[in-house]
Amino acid sequence: MTIPSNLKYTKDHEWIKIEGENATVGITDFAQGELGDIVYVDVDTLNNSVEEGAVFGSVEAVKTVSDLFMPLSGEVIEINGALEDEPELVNTDPYGKGWMIKIAISDSLQIENLLDAEAYQKLIEG
Q1: What does the pLDDT read at residue 84?
Q2: What are φ and ψ of residue 19, in 5° steps?
Q3: Does residue 102 belong to any structural domain of this protein?
Q4: Per-residue pLDDT averaged across 5-30, rounded?
Q5: Domain span holding position 34
Q6: Would 58 be classed as within a structural domain?
Q7: Is 42 among the domain residues?
Q8: Bridge partner residues of 42 (DSSP)
């Protein structure tokens, strides 16, 4: 299982790559492994401002549906269109081609609440 050290993480198993005022968000390798084969990604919050901790979409696997939670408050500025035809990219490349949304961060102070790779590793090991 991979936990890239250049990313930040949430307790809800989202990862976030901060790039200046914007960020890319997806679910972790651990999360996609727990969910199993992902068959559909539903994000309908494009151009909406979403608060930290609020639901920005959902991911559907063969046996379950799981909500996706916003790691930081911000506006959803882009959705990964490739997931419409290839939702399995979340399974095969969760930190690359399987990203879900890009956001414009509205409160950079919230970054301090995110987990680093080491803290996330401890979280999933219990």
Answers
A1: 95
A2: -130, 85
A3: yes
A4: 97
A5: 8-110
A6: yes
A7: yes
A8: 58
Instruction: Answer yes or no: is 3 within a domain.
Output: no
- What's the half-sphere exposure (Cβ side, CA atoms, 13 Å) at 6? 7
Structure tokens at 47: 């151009």
For the chain, how many structural domains are there in total? 1
CATH number at residue 57: 2.40.50.100
pTM exceeds cut of 0.90: yes
| DSSP label of 111 | G
Handedness of CA 99, 1, 61, 126 (dihedral sign): negative
Rounded distance between C-alpha atoms, residue 10 and residue 100, angstroms: 15
At 90, the amino acid letter reads V
Percentage of the residues of the chain whose pLDDT score is greater than 90:
97
- Taking the C-alpha atoms of residue 126 and residue 50, their distance in angstroms, rounded to an integer, is 29
- Are residues 32 and 94 in contact, defined by beta-carbon separation less than 8 angstroms? yes
